[in-house]
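Give me the fold.
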Amino acid sequence: MAKKMKQKAEFFMIEFLVIMMMMTSSCIGRFVVEKNSLKVTSPNSLRGVYECAIGNFGVPQYGGAMGGIVSFPKSNQKGCKPFNGDEISFKSKPGGLPVFLLVERGEYSMISFAWHAQKAGAAAVLVADDRVEPLITMDTPEEGTSEDDYVHNITIPSALISKSFGDKLKKSLSKDEVIKISLDWRETVPHPDDRVEYEFWTNSNDECGAKCDAQMAFVKDFKGAAQILEKAGYTQFTPRYITWYCPEAFILSKQCMSQCINHGRYCAPDPEQDFSVGYDGKDVVLQNLRQACFFNVAKDNGKPWLWWDYVSDFAIRCPMKQKKYTKECADQVIKSLGVDVKKVDECIGDPQADVENPVLKAEQEAQVSEARHRPLVVTSSILAMVLVEM
C-alpha cells in the first residue's frame, strides 16, 4: 500500500513538472553572479583584496582596472533621490583620483542610485549590502518600468559588496581616513590559456514562442563575431543542451515514451504542448543531440565555428512549422557544410537502445555541475532531474 502511494506521489510530481515545463520556455536562461575583485591599498587597516558582484547595468571595464577613492554621502545614503548638484558633487578634482560613491542597499531600485551617482559625477558605485548573504547580481528592471527610460544611459560600473566590508568602509570614512581602492575586471571571465571560454545553453526547438525567436535572432546576429573570435584563437566556445530524465517506474508512460530517448534517460517537453499532434519531445532531444554531435565532429576537424552555420541554416531550412524538422533535412544541411554525416550519426548512436549516450550524459553532468556551483540555477528541467536524484 505504501509503495503504491509513493508511486502515485511520484507520478503526480512528474505530471506537475511536465506541465511546468510546458508552461515555461524550452529556451533555458541562467542567473549567473559575475564577480570581480576589489583591492584596497590604503589605509593599512583595510588593505587587502575583496570580492564584489558586478551590476547588470552600466559599463564594467572588462579586461581592465579602475582606481579611485571612496566617498560616502552624509545624506541620501541610499541614493534613492538625486543629489543636489549645487551642493554635492562627486566629480574628481583636477589631478585627483576618480570618486567611487558608497551607498547603502535599501528598498529602492538599484538602478536609481547608479543614475543619481552618475549625474553627480561619480566614476563608479559601491553598494553595501544591508544583510548577510552571498553576493547577488544587481539586475536591470523589467521593460516598461519608469526606470527603463534611463537604464541604457548609465555608463558607470556598479558593484555589490558584502555587509561586513561595507561596514568597515563606513567606519574608516567616519574617521576621515582616505580609502584608495582599485576595481579589477581582468579575471572576470576564465581564460587559462589566453582564450575566453564561454558556454551557450540552447535548444533546437523553434516552437517555444518569442523566447525561441529571440534566441535564434541572437545566434544569427552573433554568428559573425563568434566565428571571427573563434578562428583567431581569442575564444573557446561550447554549446550546451539541457535535458531531464524519466523515473524508471514511468518509462512506459505516454509522457515519457513521447518525450524521451534511450529508455527515458534523456527527455524534453513537447514542442506544441500536445502529445497527439506535431513533433514530440524526443524529436527535440534528437535534434539537440545532432547539433551537439555536429559540434564535436566539426571541432575534431579543427572547425568548431561551423556550429553557428549549422544551427542558423537548420533553423531556416528545417523549421517545425514546415514539417521539415527531420533527420533528412538536417543531413542536407550537414553535407552542405562539408561535415561527414556518417561521423555525426556514429556520435548520435542508437536512440532506442537501453544504454547511456556519452554526449547527452556529459550534458546532464554539466547541468548538474551548474546547479551545484552556481548561486542560482532555476529551471523546471533541473527540478525534474533533482527529483529523480532524490
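The two ends are 21 Å apart (CA to CA).
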